[in-house]
Structure formats: C-alpha cells, structure tokens
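Ticket #4471: structure output looks truncated?

Reporter: J.K.
Steps to reproduce: submitted the chain below (72 residues) through the standard prediction queue, then opened the result file.
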Amino acid sequence: MKEQQIEDLFDFYGYTDLYKRFKTPLYVSGLFDEVEAEQLENFFDHFSFQDNNPLFDEFRYWFEIFLVTNKH
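Returned output as attached by the reporter:
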C-alpha cells in the first residue's frame, strides 16, 4: 500500500495523531508493504484505539494477529 493511502485511512478513521507517531516505524518495518487498503479498513472496523495510546509494537501485534485470523 502506498504511503498516501495509509495516511488517508488513518485520517478517515480518526487516527491522524497515531499515524504521525507511527509513520517512520511503519515505513521501516514494512508492515503495510504487502497489505491491501481493504485489510487496513477491516482492521480499523474491528479495533479501536480511541481510548488508549498504543506503542507501535502493540499496534503491529494486533494488526498481525488480525491478518492471520482473517485469511481466506
């Protein structure tokens, strides 16, 4: 997924501040390199980070678990 798509999705779901914190770790880790926009949308539809301020490793953990449990 392209960087602009990632930023737009974070913004759409109200996670602009989270994106700003995670921008560099997302790029360095390549977490979204092989991910479709729909997968990130589905993740945000099922997980909420409004009430907490996760670390990047925590976010990555939940995202990777989500990907594994939602393989078709």
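Triage note (M.O.): checked the attachment and the full token line is present. The CA atoms of residues 42 and 53 lie 20 Å apart.
Status: closed, working as intended.
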